[in-house]
Amino acid sequence: MRIDVFLDSVCIYKSRTMSAKACTEGLVKINGNRIKPSREIKENDVIEIDRFSVSEKYRIVSIPKKNVKKSEVNLYLEKSGDNL
Description:
Low-confidence stretches: none
Strand content: 25-35%
Strand order of the largest sheet: 2-1-3-4-5
Shape: globular
Number of helices: 2
Helix content: 10-25%
Mean pLDDT: 91
Oligomer: single chain
């Protein structure tokens, strides 16, 4: 699954366009590297997102087949501080 689709699916961004724009502007990193919106993700990748002068880190636990409910996001992402 592409990173822009994933970020939209797990409700990090409101739309795929917004997530793609964030990737293009260098606000999204995977495993410490800036990426393009078309970058394919895999389980255990660490995503770092810079928003509102705060950096958020997530580890991909599983990849969804479709959009997920907000109550089920924790099945796909593990949010953490600096311990990833």
